Amino acid sequence: MSANIEKYQGNLQYAVDIVMCIDATGSMNPVIGTVKESALQFHQRLNEVMARKGKEISQLRVRVIAFRDFGDDPSDAIEMTGFLRLPEQAAEFERFVRGLLATGGGDVPESGLEALALAVNSPWEKGLDRRRHVIVMFTDAPAHPLGTVGTSAQNYPRDIPRSMDDLFEQWGYARSQTAVMEQSAKRLVLFAPEEEPWQEAIGEEWDLTLHFPSKAGEGLEEFEMDEIIETIANSL
Q1: Taking the model in full, what pTM does it have?
Q2: Torsion 28-207-149-79 (CA) sign
């Protein structure tokens, strides 16, 4: 019997997967440092909150999807990792996040929906007793409608849905037959402006979604990050 199994024998095992979608366009330059530090501290702060509640995460994995704009420069529109186990792969996680540069972006809307679609279709954990699959979106811009910009680019992901309706089907809802997200496990946290598609199309229509309004050039407030982490911990 492994030490890890011994440690949690007789207790519920909590598996938490977090996918962070980070806007890395030029408009994020004033706050990209704050967003990166928030990303790097996220898992530690979640562990601390869980410990105060007498719970311990058995398996914690984090994935990062940085996005810019397929309509501006398709070559760097998406940078991403696979799931990284923490703390074992913390150095790789930190190296990727610290290496992100806020640059480019072209027009105001960005390719945030492509990043969200990639996040939804992540290879989520299926085992352990209780699971939480969390997507956190950090952006200060609206998003191009799916299927309208950069779809002919060589590196445009081929399995991206071409409409909001199709993406919503993948996110799923109660009794959905086409969802790729596990209904009882999923959560979406938007740190995004009160613009489309974030406000009405997603924030008000998708279930199990929290929307914290953001503004260009303004970072994530500490109390907002604390509330996000408390919400995740309380749902386990």
Answers
A1: 0.89
A2: positive
- Give the number of residues written for the chain: 236
- What is the domain partition of the chain in residue ranges? 12-234
Q: At residue 42, what are phi and psi to the nearest 5 degrees?
A: -55, -50
Q: What is the DSSP letter of 74?
A: G
d(CA 23, CA 100): 10
pLDDT one-digit tens code per residue, 107-155? 889 999 999 999 999 999 998 888 999 999 999 999 999 999 999 999 9
Question: In 3-state terms, the chain is what percent helix, strand and coil (to 5)?
Answer: 35, 20, 45
H or E element at residue 23: strand 14-23
Is 12-234 assigned to CATH 3.40.50.410? yes
Angle between helices 32-52 and 90-98 (to 10 degrees): 150
